[in-house]
Amino acid sequence: MARIAPPxxxxxxxxxxxxxxxxxxxxxxxxxxxxxxxxDSGDRIGIVGLLRTGADVELGGLLLPEWWNRxxxxxxxxxxxxxxxxTPGIDLVFGERPDDDHARIIDRLFAPLGxxxxxxxxxxxxxxxxxxxxxxxxxxx
Length: 141
Description:
Elements: H1 10-24, E1 32-37, E2 44-53, E3 56-63, H2 72-86, E4 92-98, H3 103-110, E5 116-118, E6 127-133, H4 134-138
Parallel strand pairs: 3-4
Antiparallel strand pairs: 1-2, 2-3, 4-6, 5-6
């Protein structure tokens, strides 16, 4: 989380979890969070989510450090992207993060999924943004 946002205090974390649980329990398409589980044990090893704003959804996720560099993120993000574009009204999936040395890791993660780095669209001046449109996703081989 250190590269994403400052840590939440316990009360804020509980409220955020409550909001996520409520969104997951509604029929609102596109705004969801999922647990990522280890294939062999079923242990919870992370979370992925979509945050919807109109026809766009922001893709995000976190994995426990011992699961980094094991292609788990790529598989989880691939499934979430598919869900997004199978949801009516979603036209764009994007991700953002600080533009630092770790952004190259995201390039390597997102490129095989079809997301491309775009310039001038990130919400923060020191951030990178990656995007994948519905038409580009549908045209993939």
